[in-house]
Task: structure prediction
Amino acid sequence: MRAVEDAVGVTIPDNARIIRNLLHGAQFQHDHIVHFYHLHALDWVDVVSALKADPKKTASLSENVSNAPWGGSAYYKNVQQRLQTFVDSGQLGPLNNAYWGHSAYNLPPEANLMASAHYIEALRLQAKAARMHAIFGAKNPHLQSLVVGGITSVRDLRPDRIAEFLYLWKETQDFIKNVYIPDLLAVASFYKDWGAIGGTTNFMAWGEFPQSSAEPQSLYMPRGTIMKRNVGGIKMATQDKVTEHVQRAWYEDGKNLHPYKGETRPLKENPDYRPGGGKYSWFKAPRYEGASCEVGPLARVLVAYANGHKDVVPLVDGTLSQLDIPVQALFSTLGRTAARGLESVAIGNAMEGWILELVGNIKAGDTKTYQSWDMPNSAQGVGLNDVPRGSLGHWINIEGGKIGNYQYVVPSTWNLGPRDEKGQLGPVEEALIGTPVADPKRPLEVLRTVHSFDPCVACGVHVIDPDSNEVYKIKAL
Amino acid sequence: MEKEQKQFYERLEQKGVSRRDFMKFCTFLTATMGLSSSFVPKVAEVFAAPSQRPPVVWLHFAECTGCSESVLRSMYPWIDELVLDILSIEYHETIMAAAGHQAEENLQMAMKKYAGKFICVCEGGVATKYDGGWGKVGGQTFLEIARDVVPKAAATITIGNCSSFGGIQAAAPNPGGYVSVEKATGVKTLKIAGCPPNPVNFVGTVVNYLLLGKLPALDELGRPLFAYGKTIHDQCPRRAHFENDEMVTEFGSEEAAMGYCLYQVGCKGPETYNNCPVVKFNDGTSWPVEAGHPCIGCSEPNFWDTMTPFYEEL
Result:
């Protein structure tokens, strides 16, 4: 959408910008909660151990560390009973055959029970949070009110709709502040060693949430690159420095191309893993000035921190001192998972101001949500932003009023892309090196780092043990 | 049963859902499914206490996981009830805690233990060119997996446009030869069409199965008639504007603000069978036409080819 808007030269109205920001802010709140509780928590939380917890002690632990609105020993007894009934049924369903009892699980039973209870609460909360999307976006998933030039949901700019949104926003943000963050800190305090595992070197963020039509100057989460962990040496990121490399990917060999000139020529064969310098991935390898970069919450938070962001700096400093870990610990699996929570607080808080801005516009009689435009015969455009998983770029060439070429470079190709022609590792590959694995047949520790990137991938990650040279295929879920 | 039901309602009430709210939902679901009101208590019974939770094997092929996400938004019953109390999800890439070899073992174990008895749910299209090599899980092609698992199921539900009709990867020129699960396996499937579908239609189908021991009545494409029996156009609250020739011709116009008919800006409602205008999405919050956007025909076969350009009149 933004790539086409850039190509046709249309500036969307203020209200359309605000509503897109609100929809996208809600996406961050929603996705990060789901990632933490449903796609990542079970790497740290042993649900089976929760059955051994004392509900009373769990209740006092919960009161100590959390501001969750539910609690008390009756509540935890009930949750435990529900889990027990589930286990006793003999039908373990999605909990079957996981790494329960693994020596790398560090939480006491009570913390496991508290986290399991919040896993279930978060399942419900996310369904409610998704309603924010439906209010101005028709439905979730796959919103359907965004068009080139603005948004279509002009009839939803009503006080009752806005109030409904505000209420759901508040409930979600309360959950983030009172449940998600305390849980994150409680779990992290048992896994501080993960502040030295799973780090990468280079970081890039396109940034997101324009506060005016001026981009990138007005982005709430700023744009920038940090190379070689040199936070002080932050630079502005520009789209012309991006190339994609295919030497190790299942595409026909070719030059390293900028996305405007990008080609997508998949091998017309049944591809297989080819050891010894061969091709091994469906991902192209994106590079920024030739360097592989991590994108996502950690990159965004580091870029914001380096920029002295007024909301992000105190959140980061506060968390580091609360966990009593050094700033270097940010470059890790723990840092990545913490950054996701911290930016949820910052972005969620900012949304309140955007809602009030929208109300102010409507009050002043401005309900414009769409700017008309004409399709040029030929043009090119780029749309850059950051989505919950990381930096997303779309590049379009328009020829004869139609799509001549279209390329997008998405967060998971940045993070999970393969090596390039120089043998440079992709970020997840780099992050996994040196991961301590207690039992190679049950590599729980590997999942922690892979999942911390929130991979959007249904393919296999190949991991080779240099000692046995055995290839383990570990599914990234 | 009585005790279990009592516990169920107690649990609901602890969650802030009254028995009255729950029965209201069952009434809504029963009506969505086109059953008579005498079925309401039976629908409630299904949710309250199934004796053995029906095993479900959920396969992911070429897809975006939007259909799984959609089912995660189920609010009546809540997704945790669907997963923990109603169904037994034996295999599901996104939500299962197991990974790697252990995950694949779960699939093999479920197929063996519940041979001929499990419900198979498929999400995503299946690559057929190059020996199916353009889509694999753990080294096995989607094609091999589908042909192995689907024939062993009691019934297969294809959720979403991709598994039902091939989806976006099957759009011209379809370089990987992607097809629907039905085409890939030769096994008839029940199709919960949509991109993604409304979770209510998935839940309605499952309830039908649990309640009546069979799948609901289908149209000639394999979609349940309770959900896909009428066109969007015939159920559209803006239909009167169509009849009166009150049309939106440009987004952002006065006509758009007045909620006129979206036919001329590309609405595919007249050729699309679905219950969006009646059920709406996310707990009845909205649907595309209510949000001022034309229907794109996402529950129809090959809509990426047949319903595009999206913004041009049919």
About this structure: The mean pLDDT of chain B is 90. Chain B touches chain A through 74 residues (CB under 8 Å). Residues 146 and 185 of chain B are 7 Å apart (CA to CA). Chain B has 16 helices and nine strands.
